[in-house]
Fold these 3 entries.
Entry 1:
Amino acid sequence: MGGVTDSGLASLPASDRTDIAARLRDALLAASFTADGLLDLLGAPAYAALARSETVPALRATRGDTSLETLVRLFLLQQPVPYARVAAVLPAEEALRAGWLTRVGGDEVAATVDVRPYGGPGGEDWFIVSDLGCAVGGAGGIGQLGRQADTAVVLGVGGASTTLAGITVRTPVASALDLGTGSGIQALHAAQHATRVTATDLNPRALHITALTLALSGAPAADLREGSLFGPVRDDETFDLIVSNPPFVISPGARLTYRDGGMGGDDLCRSLVQQAGERLSEGGFAQFLANWQHVAGEDWQDRLRSWVPRGCDAWIVQREVQDVTQYAELWLRDAGDHRGDPAEYQARYDAWLDEFEARKVKAVGFGWITLRRTGSAEPVVSVEEWPHPVEQPLGDTILAHFERLDYLREHDDAALLESHFRLAAEVVQEQVGLPGAEDPEHVVLRQHRGMRRATKVDTIGAGFAGVCDGTLSAGRILDAIAQLMNEDPVVLRDRTPAQIRLLVEQGFLEPAH
């Protein structure tokens, strides 16, 4: 994007003044306006309160006149600050000319955008730019803005943004596509491991703000394209990585661009997933956050399996399910509607429930969808529910999942028994049964890393897993167990591979290459 040309962008800083952005970045870093600096200044309670759209603790913690306090009040809390104080910290005149600041009152200036410090995965100091009111608590921090005419508002960092960033596979790639870039956080992450980054958005304001985020964070510029879904992508163009935190909310109408996709039901998420397959390079990953409908009389897992494009492995994880009333209330509150006219709030709530009733939707699921383009004649599609705590970042865990799929596809039962395995790191065994019982009712293996899974195994499965250190083949271990337990080794070799496959698939056992 070049300079400000569209009337809707007139209130934003110029996106082609990278020289000013670089000088601003240097000044912000010099004043410790970073994620760590913010936590040190505010303390954990006030810092956490910002995520809940509560600014009073942070305002109380920034009543002094240090450089960092000045910047927090100016860029994060949107408070007017005396010009002299700002000029002592920033190149104020240049920031005014480039549109980062504006004069208010007699001798004060205010920020034209929110700027939130954000720590990169390698300790990088980044800055996420968003519309005023959107850096603190996401959409809930917008206040009146969320209910007024500016429906093209661009949000800052939220829980969905950081979730997607955490689950994304981070291997070096030639090309990455951030579809529906918003404030540019996914493009910023991708720029660290992709030679070329393309970012698209239906909202030109979002593309402009993405350019600001990248420039202020010291990241390479991205190829920014305006349009919906894969519309801006050329027919012959493929990518090694596609990521999207789309406007996935299932809502009646398309009132807020950042949230509402404008298609009926979960059609936007379905279209996104179905169209991604042909846009992926061989071996490439596409990763999305999505909502999906739970329709009366229909299996939700079958619904999602039908979305997966041909030629792709898929791993779909449902993290949460809400009934339709919870769902409507969540997103009405997200937009601040609960603070407005009660009659208008009730009418919008009614419209949401009318829409769900017409579509026979009883609940809405939320989760992650990962596709991988595969040359296999038999792609594997896994759909599961896992609402339990996980350990972010999960990118390496997701990559390992698909590598294990390849391994299991390439090894029949005979080859599996010739293979060597190791127990994954930080797996523990739990025995469950009545107190005082001689033998446990069942044995549970539990992971303390990654997905933090737990799975039941029989005594043979537990014994097998405990011996796996890469030394002996699976078959040799089973023969030894058969001898100890007076079992027929042939029968044991015949019935155990299914359990070994499950333990490998879920990451409890790793091939010892």
Note: The mean pLDDT is 93.
Entry 2:
Amino acid sequence: MRLPLRASIWKRRTLIVSLRVARLVRTGLGRVFPALRYLAKSLHRRWRRSLQFRTVLTTLLLSVTSFAVVGAYLSNQIANNLFQERLTQAESETRYNVKQVQDTFDGAQVTDQSSVITLVYDTLTAVEGRGDIIQRRYVFEAMPEQTKPRNRWVESRASDQLTVSVIPPELRKAVQQSGKDQYWASTVIPVGTEDRPGIAVGNKVTFNGTVYELYLIYDLNTAQQTLDEIQSVLWAGGAVLVLIIGAIAWYVTRNVVSPVSHAALVSEKLAAGQLQERMVVKGEDEVARLGASFNHMAASLQEQITQLATLSQMQQRFVSDVSHELRTPLTTVRMAAEVLYDARHDFDPINKRSAELLYNQVERFQSLLSDLLEISRFDAGVAVLDAEPEDILQVIAHVIEGAAPVAAEYGCEITLRAPAGGIVVEMDARRIDRILRNLILNAVEHGEGKPVNISVAANRTAVGIAVRDHGIGMTPAEAARVFDRFWRADPARARTTGGSGLGLSIAMEDTKLHNGWLQAWGKKGSGANFRLTIPLRQGEEIERSPVQLEPGEITLPGGPDGKNMLVLERGPAPVPPAPDPAPEAADSVPPRQDEHAEEPALGSGDVTSPPRSAASAARKDSP
């Protein structure tokens, strides 16, 4: 009973120890692999970022490869020469010793067994050359398949620790089938507790009518030791030489790369605005001339940048001062224009038309002045983002409600495709409202009465809003310039909804304040698509936009479940507040309505908005 119990205990202990060892191995591998990955990444980063490291490492690798090839060739040649020298010596000594053995056997006058054994032993011992060092060893073996004479008392003999098995079978076969030719082969001979390389040279000898195979074996251990020493010297010398070459390469590349690195550092500081930075110039060589040229270029750039910065500041200050100074007289003019506009029904037709034109142009002038003030704030760097968590779908619905009268005037419908529920975003709702208002009104004006599609989607880090129209479109070159200030694709085209030409520029600046993206795509005759992408939380980086920039087909009402659709259908033109004839679109704007109407709920169906004119609904920018 005790033996099975002990066996069970030892089995359990063995299992516990195995599990602990496996856990330790797994833990060690879990720490080693990350360290190796970190080392590999560090080397790769160093390889990409350092010209000196790349040059020195490449030089070392090429040097090691060259020395390895040359060392292998030299080692092989030395080994062949040593072997050939030892083989020639072995063949010569073997011929001499075999002749001596055969002459001794031929002249022997022995007839009894003990005399024969003594003669063979003494002869082979003499061949072995015993002394402090055994010069050669032997294997003496009678050839098989011979008729055994009565006086053949010696079958085989060999030196200590040797047997006929050390002779390669191919050599024995060649010796047995030959006449008096001599053959050799490489072999391994046991000496003490080690195996040494050797050469076995075989011949035939005859004694008392019996043919024997006589193999003399030469130890090549001395030649192998000589070769090992030569190889050690070669590899040690090669390693030292590689290190010396690496040090030379490091020193040379350092003298060449250091000025380049210094120039790169100075360039980065210049790009960061430190225009006073210059390179240190020493000597009169090519690098010194490069440094002098670089410093001259930097001085010239500093002078030009300073002039441009001064001019820019003067322009910004001028715009800001003029805008501020114009606000007071413009307010007075606007109040007078409103008084005249409200009393226009008492005027004759000519004065009535003049009051309407005055009111409309003052409205446009005030819009332009507001845009200039906003641009001056961006240029001065005083624009501040007032971000709070809000539902961006409510902001979009408010913008669509404000754009409804303009859409009705142009006879187009606005379609919103958004996820069910809300999307809470940390944003400045006022600025996002202004961005979307510019994008939607642009799409309505340039949509040629075709539908305007708004798509909203969100991912883990960002929310994307795409405003797609199907109107005149624009080329890639126009899409690249559409956010420039005062730029228009067709300067001769009349404005129908007013605007300052700064709307998209301000929208881009508002987007930058949110650390977002504002991008444009267009194709002539196929419309345009503007995509706004902002992070869900301020301070996060946008990985990718959840909506496409180059749009695909957009599903209209009746799409997949789980989506909300807001459709603003075509409607009649807004009715003017007075029975007078409607003014021309380019010059007349009815009185502004209250823009704080109740926001429509997101859901399937039609939304009815109070009629409003294009100019009073929102400011737009014409691409």
Note: Residues 420 and 561 are 9 Å apart (CA to CA).
Entry 3:
Amino acid sequence: MPTGIVGEFLDLKAETDADVLAMQCGDFYEFFADDAELVADELDLTVSQKSSHGSSYPMAGVPLSELTPYVKALVERGYRVAVADQYETDDGHAREITRVVTPGTLLETADDDARYLAAIVREDDGTDGPYGLALADVTTGRFLVTEVDDESDLRAELYRFDPAEVLPGPRVRNDDRLLGAVREDLSGSVSLFDAEAFAPGRATHAVREQFGRETADSVGIDSDLALRAAGATLGYVEETGAGVLASMTRLTAYGDGDHVDVDATTQRNLELTETMRGDGEGSLFETVDHTVTAAGGRLLREWLTRPRRDRARLDRRLDAVEALASAALARDRLRETLGDAYDLERLAARATSGSAGARELLSVRDTLALVPEMVDAVEGTALAESPVAAVLEDLDRERARALHGELADALADDPPKAKTQGGLLRKGYDDDLDELIASHEEATEWLDTLAEREKRQYGLSHVTVDRNKTDGYYVQVGKSVADQVPEHYREIKTLKNSKRFVTDELAEREREVLRLEEARGELEYELFEELRERVAADAELLQDVGRVVAEVDALASLATHAAGNDWTRPELTDERRLDVEAGRHPVVERTTDFVPNDLRLDDERGFLIVTGPNMSGKSTYMRQAALIQLLAQAGSFVPARAAEVGLVDGIYTRVGALDELAQGRSTFMVEMQELSNILHSATADSLVILDEVGRGTATYDGISIAWAATEYLHNEVRARTLFATHYHELTALADHLPRVANVHVAVDERDGEVTFLRTVRDGPTNRSYGVHVADLAGVPKPVVGRADEVLDRLREEKAIEAKGSRGGGEGAGSDGTGDGTGSGEGTKQVVFDLSSGSFAGEGDAGSAGADAPDTGGNRNGRGSASTAGGAGGAGGEAGRAGETAETAETDRIDPEIRAVIEELSDVDVAATAPVELLARVQEWQERLDGDR
């Protein structure tokens, strides 16, 4: 077992569950054994060897003053780092672990984004919810708690806040599926914490100790689960030694009724903070973010990801944006002032943790000085009567002025980085300190003038007086005159061209200077710590000023974008409507010559079926509707000529899906799970965006699901809905469901050339133009040409030869004729029946006519809505199949096929529900496939 420093290191490491230990050894923090090799690999440090008890151990170290960036780098890579500091004892010195830095308790962040620590608690009955959730940002002191109903809501909140570290409670930590989903959704880490910290009694006590006994009741927290999560979070912050509990001055509760439900899927689909590729550029936030402060950017991001449902609050926010948008000069002056502000919320946390240096306190001083400038920028302008002025009135200006004055009187303008170096404070701040400074200056003046005195007194040349760590103060004389020095000079070192000497008086003066320096440093740092504690005591004031700066900055950012991009103020209403005139997509309009479109959703027209070709703009049209709704409920102007927006309680989207095979979920399964979430979560006050449903399975399966989902959303949920589909059969629903209407993206087709007009018009489209899109995508010309041929024959219900299907020989042309000279058995002519998804009408090349036997059905998959009730032409299939059964060909038909035809003949289309009819068709298809 190693002894000495290595043994002490390993003993301390055994006391903690941290991944890495940094132990102070004099002026360095050292890592030993496996920890040394880990940090060397991660941070490119040099590894040496340390001998202990006959063994050799890897060792790596960093200077005392440089530990922070190394710890930050390790923590940002997911490691928990324990720090053991050295302290003096009667027997010398000892070391103890003073803090553990984790991803959720790291104060020194690399960016301006919020950095949340989250705790999750669930009841012990094993059900899916409810869940208690606490979210603490140790860098700003913000503390939020809520209770959510189920796992879907929990994942939405976690995705929205994206915590750096998650603490699962006792029940949650054993839920491998949920933790797997959390790890999948988030970039942060999952850490286990003492289960007792989540116990109701202990957690409630922690909350009361931190925020006051009555705080939970006064802020409306009636959830024991939320309190348990909050208490565990406080316990974790305290145990890790982050030292920021004093900055957590407010406990904020929020619930379902406060914000619009925007689940994780919708946040991704609408690209609120990052694109589908994971980039910030091209997101909604990046588009509208013109903030000039870190806190303003964080708040604006929160507004976009957590839209509000409080109309009065939103109207005040819109009033402020309108005032700022119309007062360009005042807005510019205000933003210029804000541009000099530092992040007071984070500075407050640094002060309370004891990690703030003199430069951080200078930043506090300089930002507090901006408060009167902000007020001046508003007074006497058009903003004076706006909510912007009201925001500033919430500040305690007198307290801000007093703290600013104290810092201005105390701090030197250019303090050193080292806290104990001296020069942190101004002269005149403390009498005792001034006396020490005067004595120190007198002593150093004697030393500064010593060289000149020695030259004059002893006639020496080339004399200098200097100081270093090895020799202390010394007199240095050139070798050419070194033999002329007086007898009281004692030589201490010979150099190439000079010699160094000391004298008794110089040594005494050195001791005096060192004593004064030490006394000055100790007193000055003691005074500085008192000043920092004074700032920490005003952490709540700093947070208030910081929040005001953030709010004004976020409002000015929205106003700047609105004024520069011709956005308009939405008219909020309590009616269930979304009426947009000349709406645009807020992101796409920046990079394209955008074609605006109108949109109307209300009680009479609440469900729009959107059809049109791929790449024509359907998805953009629907996303812009959702984004206009979201922007309005974020308190922003919107990209439109005019907009009347009824408030919603949730925005739900289902837009495409990628395979998640690693999680055992295919594209279609993901699609169905997203659809299920929408059907369970949306209400009559929600906005639903469906961009294709049922495309990941067989045609009739897909149509059936899409049809049934449409009926359910229309009849049961009654949410305002836009549904884009290539199932043209669904457009018939507009004739049967009162709130359903058809719109389509217009196409101009002339002389075989197709132009997407990007204009949305009423009514359904009549084609999908898929072959044209394939051509635009660069599909080889032979494929595109062949697809055109097949499509034409399908429309005309004519035979299609499957080229090369029997040996690859060349045979009949597209008209069904040919010489049959190909190799093998020749080309086989068939009719591909879309209704059954299979080939029918078999015959050798040359034996079939241009029109193969009609097995029934409209080949393009559409039937008469009046006959089939919108069921995809099933009525036409039944009619023609009955005629076929009466022909002379009957005897040659397979018995199973004949049975299906007979059942078709017996179907009463008018009396059969569409979904049931489609199910019957699918059953017949499966029987026919099985017969083959």
Note: The chain is about 40% helix and 20% strand.
